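User: I've been trying to design a sequence by hand for this structure and keep getting stuck. Would you show me what you'd pick, starting by listing the structure so we're on the same page?

Assistant: Good idea, let's start from the same input. This is the structure you sent:
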């Protein structure tokens, strides 16, 4: 008979009472080899799959790519990705948080290819697959759930979808263009090492088939954050610290084929520079137009050396300048002292697309000289670390090309700023879309854009700012007591929007004057216009 004792095997043969016992002892088997270690290969072709040319052509009317940070998705918090919303070019979900474990989804809207605003969505609610932490009783882990975005609220089901493994972390779901497949990241049993890409069939009745590893994409390093290109062909983007990388996590693309009830990935390719760097790149995604490519990265790229947080970047197509430029010169002064503001940042942007044409800084006399395209509406903005910002619009005539235009009126910066969000009389959390000018007239600017610029200004000088004082003011409608409350509520609304954009809550101090400091009504000014001017939030910088 055979006796198995530990790892040794004894074979005992009995022939008779006097039979000699013969014993054979097998050597214990060698230990299994250790699993392969995570090792990525260096990228040899820096052009990569997309071969993005970001050099501005000298010939007019030529398309080229611009790669830059996304305004509104580059705060002091972590911005891990910008998720597109199916069949909607403007809507997107920003993944933001202090760290990955506490990150949340923020309903946002694109104000241009390289800028977003934290803004409620209009129209019908939207449903899409999302990730969330689910309590399984004895432990909590990541799961894939159905998410509903209704206005500014992102709600997720408590129950996970059918392919979830309650003993593993599942997340980062991506639905294929034909809606037949779900690809996601998971560390469930069967993964090569840590986190792999898995897939499951999605049936027309809403049920989901068993999950399987996505062959062709997985390595002994991590694979995560998959997303499909919004096209009929099945192309999958994802991040990996394996395959061939520039270092850290890189963004990749692979062709995905249907084989009966299975998916197979082939031809994995690095997306190349400038999408990928020696830093980490995660959550690659393509906008529904199939042109703008977004990725989150913790590269410095011009930021301070200590900044290692993730920001969202975008590669989008631009058309080379359609004509010559003019040189615009002027001065930036302190509105209180009339002294020049040294080293103020001056930027020329497109009034419509928000594209940055050029930027410069003022010299020791507060003077600036900046190139501005002719026959194009341009916004010139100046800002300083210790002062707020101010701007003006200009359109230089075509016949002034290659000339020097002198602006005699200086840009004035102040430690105080009046934010004229157009609140309805008795409301505090639902402002009208457009802001007002100093005369109470509606502008073409959204309140989200004004908040974005305010946040960027505060963050640029955060090391020099001790406090930002925000004071709410109302009109004369209703009682003084109720208006004090209303003014404070409006201030808190502004504070929350700034915190969402990465401004530290600790430097924001809010209060309310209600109707105690009404503005003087102008001659021939209507009562409605006067009340609009009175409804405001005044901010003051206190610097160290």
């Amino acid at each position: 008979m055979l006796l198995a004792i530990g790892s040794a095997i004894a074979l005992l043969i009995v022939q008779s009472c006097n039979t000699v016992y013969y014993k054979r002892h097998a050597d214990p088997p060698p230990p299994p080899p250790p699993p392969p270690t995570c090792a990525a290969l260096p990228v040899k072709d820096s052009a990569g799959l997309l071969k993005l040319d970001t050099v501005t052509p000298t010939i007019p009317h030529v398309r080229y790519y611009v790669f830059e940070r996304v305004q509104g998705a580059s705060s002091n918090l972590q911005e891990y990705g910008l998720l597109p919303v199916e069949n909607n070019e403007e809507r997107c979900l920003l993944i933001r948080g202090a760290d990955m474990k506490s990150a949340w989804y923020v309903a946002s809207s694109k104000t241009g290819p390289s800028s977003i605003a934290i803004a409620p969505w209009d129209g019908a609610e939207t449903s899409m697959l999302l990730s969330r932490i689910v309590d399984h009783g004895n432990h909590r882990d990541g799961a894939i759930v159905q998410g509903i975005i209704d206005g500014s609220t992102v709600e997720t089901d408590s129950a996970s979808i059918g392919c979830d493994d309650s003993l593993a972390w599942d997340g980062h779901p991506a639905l294929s263009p034909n809606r037949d497949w779900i690809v996601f990241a998971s560390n469930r049993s069967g993964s090569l090492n840590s986190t792999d890409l898995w897939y499951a069939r999605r049936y027309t009745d809403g049920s989901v088939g068993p999950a399987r590893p996505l062959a062709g994409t997985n390595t002994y390093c991590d694979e995560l954050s998959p997303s499909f290109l919004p096209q009929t062909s099945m192309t999958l983007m994802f991040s990996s610290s394996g395959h061939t990388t520039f270092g850290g996590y890189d963004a990749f693309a692979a062709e995905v084929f249907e084989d009966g009830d299975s998916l197979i990935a082939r031809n994995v390719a690095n997306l190349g520079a400038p999408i990928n760097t020696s830093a980490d790149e995660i959550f690659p995604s393509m906008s529904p137009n199939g042109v703008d490519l977004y990725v989150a990265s913790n590269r410095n790229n011009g930021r301070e050396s200590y900044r290692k947080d993730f920001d969202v970047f975008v590669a989008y197509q631009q058309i080379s300048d359609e004509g010559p430029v003019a040189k615009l010169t002027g001065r930036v002064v302190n509105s209180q002292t009339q002294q020049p503001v040294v080293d103020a940042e001056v930027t020329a942007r497109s009034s419509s697309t928000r594209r940055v044409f050029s930027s410069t800084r003022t010299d020791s006399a507060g003077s600036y000289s900046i190139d501005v395209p002719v026959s194009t509406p341009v916004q010139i903005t100046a800002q300083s670390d210790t002062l707020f910002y101010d701007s003006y619009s200009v359109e230089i005539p075509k016949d002034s090309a290659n000339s020097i235009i002198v602006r005699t009126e200086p840009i004035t910066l102040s430690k105080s700023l009046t934010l004229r969000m157009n609140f309805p009389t008795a409301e505090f959390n639902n402002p009208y879309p457009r802001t007002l000018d100093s005369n109470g007239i509606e502008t073409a600017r959204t309140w989200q854009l004004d908040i974005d610029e305010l946040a960027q200004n505060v963050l640029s000088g955060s090391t020099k700012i001790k406090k930002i004082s925000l004071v709410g003011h109302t009109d004369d409608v209703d009682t003084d007591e109720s208006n004090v409350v209303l003014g404070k509520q409006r201030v808190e609304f502004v504070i929350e929007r700034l915190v969402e954009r990465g401004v530290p809550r600790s430097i924001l101090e809010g209060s309310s004057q209600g109707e105690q400091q009404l503005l003087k009504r102008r001659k021939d000014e209507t009562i409605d216009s006067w009340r609009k001017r009175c409804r405001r939030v005044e901010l003051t910088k206190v610097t160290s």
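That's my pick for every position. To get oriented when you compare it with your attempt: The mean pLDDT is 84. Residues 176 and 228 are 6 Å apart (CA to CA).
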